[in-house]
Design goal:
Low-confidence stretches: none
Helix content: under 10%
Number of strands: 10
Order of helices and strands: EEEEEEEEEE
Amino acid sequence: QVQLVESGGGWVQPGGSLRLSCAASGSSITINNYAWYRQAPGKERELVASITTPGSTYYAGSVKGRVTISRDNAKNAVYLQMNSLKSEDTAVYHCWSPDLGDFDDPHSWGQGTQVTVSS
């Protein structure tokens, strides 16, 4: 069974950087379409960035210019480089792929990685 596994979260001071990774294990197909979502306590889940075939990207206004999404098809992985982090970026970050299932399908989501930005 295919599983998305995120890593790279942690604690960072404001202004710092983190690189999140999401790798698909157990997949025999190339996954091309990914999205990163985040959810802070008491807030709705929000789309941070997405990348689709053939490499089109989207960024939420709140992160545009500070975040870069990239994909490695050979590794079936997606990355989220986050720079100039702010306290409001604190959240659990999840990756999702529509190639693995619908939005409501838990198998198309990773378990999440916590990002905490504070001084």
